[in-house]
Amino acid sequence: MKRLLAAAAILMLLIAVAGCGGGGAQQPKGQATTAPEGPAPTRIVLATPTPLPPPPTPTRIPPTPAPEVTSEEATTEETTPEPAEESEPPTVTDIMIEIPAGPFTMGSDDADPEDAPAQQIDLPAFAIDRFEVTNADFDAFAKATGYLTFGEREERGSWRNEWEMGQDNHPVVMVTWEDAVAYCEWLGKRLPTEA
Questions:
Q1: Model-level pTM?
Q2: Which of 25, 100, 112, 153 is at a distance of 20 to 30 A from 67, taking alpha carbons?
Q3: In degrees to the nearest 10, what's the CA dihedral of 167, 159, 184, 177?
Q4: What is the DSSP letter of 186?
Q5: Most distant CA pair in the chain, distance
């Protein structure tokens, strides 16, 4: 490993020296130099890569509590207890960030007419999800609640049709405003306002 690092350092040094013109003969002091033929060499600056943030850690959402059974219901012959299924609660990406209070311009006078007029709005601080709701997040909601989207109920298409294998972390599509509200309420949250 040390040899590989040393070789890489030497290679970078040679490239730097060649790029600076240090590979030729030394010019005696006091003599004028002439510009070389052709375009000037391009300087290359190597930047330090910025590390990527770690992926989000999913937060477990507790399962919905089972309805309570009274002792009278438990003793009747008609009631047969169902075997309890041991399953882990669904996980969703539940990372929120704080947006500080402050003014911003909402709308535009230069865009579509429905966006006008531009106006200065002063918002209090609020928290919002850092990431979009993913296919995996919405799947956890649908499995936990048995929810069917508007498109599924009306047989107009489903978010599942757009969710191909390997796209768990893609944003969910083919959901209506009502479907999004149901998801938010399941998490004890709400949709953001236009502001």
A1: 0.52
A2: 153
A3: 130
A4: H
A5: 112
